[in-house]
Structures are given as structure tokens and as C-alpha cells.
């Protein structure tokens, strides 16, 4: 038995030795091949390279020494070696490296910049505790003549506050777009802020970093301030809590400091959140409160809306005479959807367009890689003949692609950073949460990942081609100029056609958006904007709390503003094209509550007598406001054509009466005395004119924040200093806010459309540039590979025009194939853009034709340089060299 065990042991040793020797021989061969490649990359001739490799790895003992040194870190050493060889190889082709990294940087930079916006706006949660539980409440007038969903009234909020538990916890806020005037020892300062309810910090889940916060005393006038204001005005001292803060002449007690970055939803840079003493409303409307509800996880929005509607209806009926009859109900929308709004679709469209540009860049880089692979075919064949395995060559090519991809990703990250800095300055008012955008670690990882992935995808074609090509054939054919034409030319032409198709799709989208912008700017806003200067005054001050003093104030203001060059002065609670202060529901006389058309909602304005004349809004029927329309005379109103068409299709609006707010038999009625042209107030020209009710400011005069408009015969900006002095002469603490000419307001109302068109045009320009580079590369390579054929044709009598026609024609045929394929993509993008188009058909043939012609023209220009090079070459010198 012992002898048998000894025999088995000897056999095992022999087998193990045989296996070890086999492994050592294989490893010897691999090290030998690796050393030969390294020497060749350093420029050593092939014979000397083999000699040096044999001197180092010529026997098993040397191999054992190498294995002992490299064991445990072999993969890392191989990777470092591949990187070192790749860097040396790329250093010898600087033009190729610049072209590849620039293409990748453009594609990755655009995609990363837009992804960072998408990440901050759409993916990152709102900066509140358990933000997914927050819902924005709306009142929906679904049973009315025109379905409408809007803000709530203060009466709604008070009623909800009583009955919401345990269904939800509610809070309300009302931002002041014109800001507050803060009284300081250094003089008045305008800060941004909002009027909020006691529950707003608790509902949003953000606690003060100093101070107790709002108390439950409904009569106390209190304020929370931002950390920035706390440090700027009070030096960050704890004794600021309990001190007074004077805003718009009213005194508030500071009860807390909110942390950096806090604000009410949809706004930023606020520095004060005030809670005035509560005043009980006398009727349900008007509707201008934003109400937030925090739902428990067990309650769905639909169930909560139904419960709250049922619970509040009896209170509204008892207090304000509101009837139900299914004419209104509450609805709940996730707060994030409200904050983001319609911009989410726009951002996703931008992200899709940027990804298309990235695909074009990948196709461009793949073309460059294939062209370089053709040039390096002899090098790869020599390496293979010296012992390098096919896998080893593929790994080396992919390493070079990864290096290029990472470099392009890093450069793209820099371009994204620069683009975001520009975007912050130009799009903060257009894109919500723009101040939260930053290049954080996820965005950096995405940029580098996109660059690496794009580089590997683009660089995968040469290694894939290497798998199916005989290396001996590569060595034999490497000296033939036309060898690539059969193997790789078709692939490169397909890639370029795909680039052209994608470019056409992006270019068509940009054309539709630019056409939309043109239609918006050419649309009739319903008034004449030229020569009008506007600004806003905040009269929410103790000096203006007595309505009896306001007529004298406005008379003095109007007299002082009639400066040389000012032809008329008017004031109003709202301004076109997008400064709507309030919407209101109303009841028409003679129509019983619950019947169709008995109630509806409309834009609601108070305007002075000269308002229509100043803005040159046409009077269609009846009269405007007159000096006899005083507080002691019957209430009158002027309505818009949209209002008259909807409620009085027979054209008999004059003399009819309506009552603002819900039906109340004890309320006063307002008589319609005129009909004026339609003017947009809420969403500008884009949203179109809505039914509007104008009330006489003289009959409803009160403190607030009226807009003042001046029609001036000269440049309005030149008169602005005189206007400021005239207002300050009345009240030194009454600054002008939201100052702008009416033409600037019109341009501002189309800023979002302009931003969309500009960004899409930039992406389309990048796509066109990349596609032109791709076409140029393919045609130039084609011309270079067929230079012998071209020389023979020229020697046999072919004219230069024949060569030009042949080369340019081949490029245009390639472009035509891409255009035909790209029309389908263009129609798909057009359908996705339909929601952001204004008075433009998504299948507009003019836009598609223009985009196709631009692509064809660019393709022709890209082919012209290689064509001229082929046409003017000396055929005898080429034939002699060949």
C-alpha cells in the first residue's frame, strides 16, 4: 500500500511539473510578445525588438523571475502597460486626438449640462421634509361654462384649517412679487418675501435655526427672516429675536431665523416671511392664495380632495352663501409637479435632443476610429506576426478608446460648467430651481461615464472588425490604397448617413421652435406697446391704510407725472401681457345658481379712466370709464370681447349686471357699460386673451400695489430719472418697483420661447458641425484611398469637372440617404414638440424643406474641399510614387 501511495505521489508530481512547465511556456510566450510590442511602440526596428525580447525572456529561469515579480499585480501592470502604450500611440497623432476629444466634448458637454438641470429640477426632491407628501390645493370650477383650476381664497384656507384634520394639514402663502420695503438706519431697502400662515414651517417640515417661530396668537404680527438678512442687518446676534422689523411701514416682531436655502415653493431669494393679524373675510373670493396640504401616507390625493370638499362645503354655505350643486370642488396636485410646471416636458425634450447630438458625436468618432484603424492596419499586422494575440490587440485598441473617452468627458465637463454659468444668468426666471443646479458628484460621474461609454462604443468598431479579418491579409493588403474601400467604407458611409438623419431631426425641431418664436413676436397683443413706461408702487403702508386719503394721493401723483413728453397717465392692478394680480368668480343677474352660465371665473382688474386710451385698447361697444364714475355712483364695469362672446353670444352685453364673488342676494350689482378688445394678462400672448372684467379704480380705490403707466412721446428710458424724482417728492420711502417699458414686458413674455429656440438652435448647430465633419472625413478618406484610380482617370483624359462631379455627387448621394431617413425622425420630434408650438403645424413643410436644404448644402460644402484636392492633383506624381 505504501509503495502504491508513493507511485501516485510521483505521478502527481510529474503531472504538476508538466502543467507548470506548460503554464510557464505560455506565460513566456505572452511576455515575449508583450516586450516585442513595447519595443516596437518605442520605435525599435522589428529585428532588434525580437532580439531584446529574447535577451530578457529567453529561458524559463528569466520567466520565473518575471512571474515572481509580477505575481499578485499582473492585471494592474498590464493595464498600466496598455495605458502607457496607448498614450505613446496617441501622442504620435495629435490631430486625430484633437478631433476625437473635441467631438466627444461637444456631445458630452451638452448632454451633461442639460442632465444637471434635469437632475436638479426633476430628479432631486424638493428641499422639504418628506416632500412627496406635499400637495398643492386648487379649486376647480368644473361645472362652469369654462373649466378652470386656480388658487384658493383666504376664506377657503380658514375653512380648511378648521376641518382638515386628520385628512391633511394645510398652510397658505402669498408671495409678494414686488417685494417689501425694509426700513433700515441706512435708508429703505427692497427685499423679497411672502405673506404666510402660522403652519407654513411645520407643513414644509423646516424649523427655524434661531427663535421659536410663529405663535398661535392670530392677532400677533410676526415675521420669520432669512439667515442672510439676520447676518446683514443684525450681525447674526441672538438678541435679534424679539426685535421689531418694519416692512412697508408696518411693524412685525421677529420670531425666528430660517436656515439658508429655505423659501416657499416656486420662489427663491426671499428674506422675510410675515404673518399679519388675521382679518375675517366677508365673502369667499377673490382667489389668490397658494394652499399646501401635507397628506398622511395612508390618504391618497383623490380621497383627501373628496373629503375636504365635503367637509368645507357646509361652512362656505353658512358663512358666504356658497351653493354646491357640483359647481366646484378641490383638487390636489403633487407640489413638485406644480413647482416644476410645464418646464418638465421642455427639459426632457432638451435632454432627448442633447442625446441625439451625443449619438452624432459617437458616430463621428467611430468614423475617425475606423479611418485610423485603416492607417494602422500594417502596424497591427506586424505586431500579430511578432506574436501578439488577437485579444491583446483588441484590448490595446479599447484602452486607447477609453483614454480618448475620458479625456473628452473631462473636457465636456468643463463645457457643461461654462454653459451652466451662462444658463444661471439667462434662465433663472424661466426654469424653476435653477439656483439649485450644481456640478455635484452624480453629474461628474455621469459626464465621465458618458465620455468613457461614448469612447468605448465609438472605438468598438475597429476591434470588432479585427476579429473577422485575417491578419495575414491585413499585412498583405496594407500597402494597397483601396483596401479599406471594400471592408470599412460601407460601415463609415452608414455611420455618416445616420449622423445626417439625426442632424436633420434636431435641425427640424430647432426650426419649429424658431418659427414659433417668430409667430409669438408677430402676434397682436391687443394694445400698442411703443412709448409706454410702467412701474409698480407698493402702497401697503400705514400712511395709505386710510382709503379716504388715497384719492388725493393719486391726484397728486398724476399731476406730478405729467412731465414734458408725457401725454397720459393711468394706473391699474394688473398689466399685460403677463402681470395678472387676481382672478375672481362672479354671478350673472337673472341666472339662478346651479344653472349653466350662472357663475364663472374671469380675470379681474381695477383700472383708471385713461387706461384704455393710454394702451390704445379699442373700445368695441358702449363707453369706457368717465369722471362721473365715483364711489357714490352705481358700480360699472367694462368687459372684454372674450367675456361678451362667452356669456352674451347675442351681442347684448351692455346693460347686463353681474356680482363679484359667489351669489349673495344682499350684495351690490355692477352694470356692464362697455366692451373693449381682448388683451392677455395671465400667460401673455402664448395663453391668449381670457374673459376679463375691468372695474373702475375710482369706485374701488384702496391700498395695494398698483401699476402706473405713462405714454411718452420720446424714449421712455430718458424720462425715467425725472419720474423717480417726481414719485420721491411725494414719499421718499416709496421706491419704484418692476420698472420696464411695455416693449420690454412683451419681449419678456416670449423669453421662454426664445430660450427654447436658442438652446435647440445651439444643439442643431453642434449637430450640423459634427455631421459636416463626418461627411468631410468620409469623402476625404475615399478620395485618398482612390488617388491612384483618380490619377489614372486624369491621365486617360478625364476633366477636372468630371472628378469634381463624381466626388461631390458621392457625398450628396450619402446626404440624400440620410435626409430620407431623417425625415421620419424629424416628424417624431415634431410630434413631441407640439405642446410648445404656437400657431405652427408640427409637420410644417416649409421647416422640413428648409432643414433638408441646409443639410444638403452643408454636405455639399463638406465635399468641396476633398473634391478640389482630387481634381487638382498631379496624376504623374501619384503614379510615380505608387
Describe, in plain words, how this protein is organized in 3D.
By secondary structure, the protein is an alpha+beta fold. It folds into 4 domains: 25-71; 142-327, no CATH class; 343-521 and 751-881, no CATH class; 538-735, no CATH class. Helix content is 54%, strand content 15%. The protein is built from 29 helices and 21 strands. The strands form 3 sheets. Strands 1, 2, 3, 4, 5, 6, 7, 8, 9 and 10 form a 10-stranded mixed beta sheet that branches. A 6-stranded mixed β-barrel has the order 13-14-19-16-18-17. A hairpin with an 8-residue loop joins strand 1 (134-140) and strand 2 (149-150). The chain is elongated, with a radius of gyration of 37 Å. The N and C termini lie far apart (78 Å). Residues 6-21, 60-73, 144-148 and 478-485 have low confidence and may be disordered.
Uncertain runs are 6-21, 60-73, 144-148, 478-485
Quick one: how many beta strands?
Answer: 21
Q: What gap, in angstroms, lies between the N and C termini? A: 78 Å
Based on secondary structure, the structural category is alpha+beta
Question: How much helix is in the residues?
Answer: 40-55%
SS strand fraction? 5-15%
Output the number of helix runs. 29
Shape by Cα distribution: elongated
Kindly give the count of domains. Answer: 4
Radius of gyration, in Å, reads: 37 Å
The average pLDDT value, as a whole number, equals 78
Largest β sheet strand count, sense and barrel closure:
10 strands, mixed
Amino acid at each position: 500500500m505504501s509503495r502504491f501511495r508513493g507511485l501516485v505521489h510521483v505521478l502527481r508530481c510529474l503531472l504538476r511539473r508538466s502543467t507548470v512547465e506548460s503554464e510557464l511556456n505560455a506565460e513566456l510566450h505572452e511576455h515575449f510578445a508583450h516586450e516585442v510590442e513595447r519595443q516596437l511602440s518605442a520605435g525599435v526596428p522589428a529585428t532588434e525588438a525580437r532580439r531584446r525580447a529574447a535577451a530578457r525572456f529567453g529561458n524559463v529561469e528569466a520567466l520565473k523571475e518575471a512571474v515572481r515579480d509580477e505575481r499578485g499585480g499582473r492585471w494592474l501592470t498590464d493595464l498600466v502597460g496598455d495605458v502607457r502604450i496607448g498614450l505613446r500611440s496617441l501622442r504620435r497623432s495629435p490631430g486625430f486626438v484633437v478631433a476625437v476629444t473635441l467631438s466627444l466634448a461637444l456631445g458630452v458637454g451638452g448632454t451633461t449640462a442639460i442632465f444637471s438641470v434635469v437632475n436638479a429640477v426633476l430628479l432631486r426632491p424638493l428641499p422639504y421634509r418628506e416632500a412627496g407628501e406635499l400637495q398643492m390645493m386648487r379649486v376647480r370650477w368644473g361645472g362652469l361654462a369654462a373649466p378652470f383650476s386656480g388658487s384658493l381664497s383666504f376664506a377657503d384656507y380658514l375653512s380648511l384649517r378648521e376641518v382638515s384634520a386628520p385628512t391633511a394639514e394645510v398652510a397658505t402663502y402669498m408671495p409678494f412679487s414686488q417685494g417689501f420695503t425694509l426700513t433700515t438706519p441706512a435708508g429703505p431697502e427692497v427685499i423679497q418675501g411672502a405673506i404666510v400662515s402660522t403652519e407654513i414651517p411645520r407643513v414644509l417640515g423646516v424649523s427655524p435655526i434661531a427663535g421659536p417661530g410663529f405663535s398661535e396668537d392670530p392677532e400677533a404680527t410676526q415675521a420669520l427672516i432669512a439667515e442672510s438678512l439676520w447676518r446683514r442687518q443684525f450681525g447674526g446676534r441672538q438678541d435679534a429675536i424679539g426685535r421689531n422689523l418694519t416692512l412697508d411701514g408696518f411693524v412685525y416682531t421677529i420670531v425666528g431665523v430660517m436656515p439658508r436655502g429655505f423659501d416657499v415653493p416656486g420662489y427663491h431669494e426671499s428674506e422675510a416671511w410675515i404673518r399679519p393679524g388675521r382679518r375675517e373675510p366677508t365673502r369667499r373670493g377673490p382667489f389668490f392664495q397658494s394652499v399646501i396640504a401635507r397628506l398622511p401616507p395612508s390618504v391618497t390625493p383623490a380621497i383627501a380632495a373628496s373629503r375636504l370638499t365635503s367637509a368645507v362645503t357646509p361652512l362656505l354655505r353658512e358663512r358666504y352663501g356658497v351653493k354646491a350643486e357640483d359647481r366646484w370642488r378641490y383638487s390636489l396636485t403633487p407640489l413638485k409637479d406644480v413647482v416644476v410646471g410645464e418646464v418638465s416636458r421642455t427639459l426632457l425634450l432638451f435632454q432627448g435632443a442633447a442625446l441625439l447630438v451625443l449619438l452624432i458625436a459617437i458616430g463621428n468618432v467611430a468614423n475617425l476610429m475606423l479611418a485610423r484603424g485603416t492607417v494602422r492596419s500594417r502596424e497591427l499586422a506586424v505586431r500579430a506576426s511578432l506574436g501578439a494575440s488577437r485579444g491583446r490587440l483588441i484590448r490595446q485598441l479599447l484602452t486607447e478608446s477609453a483614454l480618448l473617452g475620458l479625456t473628452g468627458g473631462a473636457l465636456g465637463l468643463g463645457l457643461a460648467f461654462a454653459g451652466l454659468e451662462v444658463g444661471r444668468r439667462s434662465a433663472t426666471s424661466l426654469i424653476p430651481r435653477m439656483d439649485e443646479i450644481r456640478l455635484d458628484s452624480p453629474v461628474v460621474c455621469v459626464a465621465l461615464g458618458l465620455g468613457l461609454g461614448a469612447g468605448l462604443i465609438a472605438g468598438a468598431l475597429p476591434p470588432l472588425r479585427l476579429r473577422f479579418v485575417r491578419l495575414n491579409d491585413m499585412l498583405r493588403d496594407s500597402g494597397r490604397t483601396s483596401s479599406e474601400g471594400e471592408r470599412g467604407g460601407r460601415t463609415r458611409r452608414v455611420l455618416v448617413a445616420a449622423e445626417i438623419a439625426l442632424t436633420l431631426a434636431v435641425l427640424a425641431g430647432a426650426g419649429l421652435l424658431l418659427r414659433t418664436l417668430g409667430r409669438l413676436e408677430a402676434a397682436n397683443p391687443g394694445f400698442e406697446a411703443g412709448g409706454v413706461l410702467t412701474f409698480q408702487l407698493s402702497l401697503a403702508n400705514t400712511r395709505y391704510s386710510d382709503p379716504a386719503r388715497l384719492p388725493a394721493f393719486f391726484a397728486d401723483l398724476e399731476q406730478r407725472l405729467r412731465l414734458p413728453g408725457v401725454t397720459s397717465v393711468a394706473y391699474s392692478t394688473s398689466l399685460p401681457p403677463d402681470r395678472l394680480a387676481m382672478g375672481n368668480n362672479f354671478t350673472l343677474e337673472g341666472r339662478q345658481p346651479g344653472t349653466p352660465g350662472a357663475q364663472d371665473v374671469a380675470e379681474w382688474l381695477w383700472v383708471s379712466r385713461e387706461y384704455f386710451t393710454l394702451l390704445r385698447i379699442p373700445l368695441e361697444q358702449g363707453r369706457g370709464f368717465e369722471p362721473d364714475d365715483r364711489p357714490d355712483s352705481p358700480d360699472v364695469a367694462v368687459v372684454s370681447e372674450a367675456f361678451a362672446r362667452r356669456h352674451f353670444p347675442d351681442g347684448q352685453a351692455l346693460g347686463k349686471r353681474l356680482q363679484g364673488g359667489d351669489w349673495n342676494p344682499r350684495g351690490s350689482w355692477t352694470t356692464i357699460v362697455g366692451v373693449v378688445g381682448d388683451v392677455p394678462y395671465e400667460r401673455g400672448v402664448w395663453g391668449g386673451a381670457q374673459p376679463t372684467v375691468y372695474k373702475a379704480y375710482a369706485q374701488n380705490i384702496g391700498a395695494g400695489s398698483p401699476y402706473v403707466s405713462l405714454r411718452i412721446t420720446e424714449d421712455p428710458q430718458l424720462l425715467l430719472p425725472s419720474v423717480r424724482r417726481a414719485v420721491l417728492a411725494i414719499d421718499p420711502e416709496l421706491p419704484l418697483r418692476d420698472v420696464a417699458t411695455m416693449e420690454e414686458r412683451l419681449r419678456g413674455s416670449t423669453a421662454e420661447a426664445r430660450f427654447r429656440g436658442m438652446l435647440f438652435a445651439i444643439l442643431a448647430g453642434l449637430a450640423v458641425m459634427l455631421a459636416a465633419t463626418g461627411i468631410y472625413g468620409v469623402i476625404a478618406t475615399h478620395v485618398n484611398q482612390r488617388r491612384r484610380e483618380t490619377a489614372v482617370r486624369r491621365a486617360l483624359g478625364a476633366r477636372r469637372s468630371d472628378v469634381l462631379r463624381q466626388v461631390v455627387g458621392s457625398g450628396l448621394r450619402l446626404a440624400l440617404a440620410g435626409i430620407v431617413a431623417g425625415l421620419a425622425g424629424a416628424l417624431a420630434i415634431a410630434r413631441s414638440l407640439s405642446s410648445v408650438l404656437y400657431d405652427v403645424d408640427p409637420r410644417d413643410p416649409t421647416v422640413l424643406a428648409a432643414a433638408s436644404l441646409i443639410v444638403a448644402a452643408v454636405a455639399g460644402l463638406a465635399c468641396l474641399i476633398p473634391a478640389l484636392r482630387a481634381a487638382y492633383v498631379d496624376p504623374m506624381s501619384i503614379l510615380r510614387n505608387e
